[in-house]
Amino acid sequence: MPQGGHLQDQLWIRQVPSFYSPAQIREYLSVVRFDPLPEESEIQEKKFERSVESLERLMRVHLTTFPWENTAMHYSASHTMDVSPQGVFKRMVKDGNGSYCFGQNTLFLGILRGLGFRAYASAARVNVNLETPEEQEVYTSHTHMLLFVQPDDESNLTYVVDVGFGGEVARPVPLLSGDESIVMGLGPAEENRLFKAPLPQSSLSRSLSSNIPRGQDLWTMEVRDRETSDGPYGPWRQMYRFSELEFFPADCADGSFVVEQNQSGIIAEQVLCTKHYIDEQHPEYMYRIVAAGRRVKKQVPGREEEVLRTFASEQDRVDALQEIFGITFEQNAIQNIQGRRSALSRTWRSI
Predict the structure, then answer these.
(1) C-alpha 100: how far from its chain's center?
(2) 3-state SS class at 120
């Protein structure tokens, strides 16, 4: 793991109290099967071993325990996602469900702070053309949340942590611009890195005679992968851009509200669920199982996708989400999704 970089002006992150009690932190660690499980008194006294290695372990057990999902947006009567600290603790830790970025990273931020890590949240603009790198980047408003973490008690070396982008970021990424920030993704056929540059649509430049955007550089999270385990890497794809400005719970609630109310875009138009699993042949690697559209697929970086299941009806999809991902639903879930763009039509046939 490369060493972290620094925030602007080499700032330090202060120690901030957690949303959660030591008892809640221990319950979380028990649910994610963190070993060894610390006693509540050890959590209270901040005796948890803090390092970039333990931070990576926490990311790993989080990703392999909680699914990334937006089912409450579509199947609940309110069509909302509760991303408040206690709301996501109940939904995820108590009930065994997941959430999307705001919920996932809110929970993880509270856990990290409760274990004594120095961390804070920030917001990002997501590139809607992530899957088509040949096209111009087009960014949303601040509809994604991520974390900055300084894992070493005696250092301000900083890492970007994100358990809320469906597993596209699986490890702490050093806050450095360029290839020195490269880290492995789920496995060796996937990589992430950071670089700093202005938004292509920026109105700013160094002079009136220049058409090149300059100034107000933002961090960009990128990913690249290869089609086979030993083949060449594809191009770097821009996932999202972000500054170092702090993002507070009120900002999180507002950002989530925007996503909930949006009538277009993949999160509004599709029921999505992603869960991560340890690769038994290579325990240091992970793979993902994804439900999207009418299919559940197994995705192992560097291998061809495998379709595990298809849906001919809403009942098929709800059954799969329960059986494969462990999602729980309200009694009238199927009625609640009717009339929404994400609802499955009844005329589809599997090919």
Answers:
(1) 7
(2) strand
Cα 154 to Cα 218, 258, 281, distances in angstroms: 27, 39, 37
- Is 20:89 a contact under the CB 8 Å cutoff? yes
Q: Reply yes or no on whether the pLDDT at 243 is more than 50.
A: yes
Q: How far apart are CA 275 and CA 189, in angstroms?
A: 18
CA distance linking residue 57 with residue 44, whole number of Å: 20
* Whole-angstrom distance, CA of residue 123 vs CA of residue 31: 28
- Provide the pLDDT for residue 264: 86
Q: Could you list the beta-strand ranges (E) of 1-77.
A: 68-69
Q: Tell me if 30 sits within 8 A of 37, measured CB to CB.
A: yes
- For residue 225, what are the β-bridge partners? 190
What's the pLDDT at 347? 46
Among 60, 164, 162, which Cα is nearest to 102's? Answer: 164
Mean pLDDT of the chain: 93
Residue 214 clears pLDDT 80, i.e. is over it: no
| Whether the Cβ atoms of residue 220 and residue 196 lie closer than 8 Å to each other | yes
Provide the CB-side half-sphere exposure for 242 (13 A, CA).
26
76: left (phi over 0), alpha (psi -120 to 50) or beta: beta
Q: Are 293 and 270 in contact (CB under 8 A)?
A: yes
Token readout for 79 is 């069509």
On the 0-12 / 13-18 / 19+ scale of CB atoms within 10 A, 8 is: exposed
The CA distance from 61 to 93, in Å, is 13
Burial of residue 307 (CB within 10 Å: 0-12, 13-18, 19+) is exposed
Instruction: Flag whether the pTM goes above 0.85.
Output: yes
Give me the amino acid identity at 222.
Answer: E
Q: How far from 313 is each of 76, 175, 295, 325, CA to CA, in Å?
A: 18, 45, 11, 18
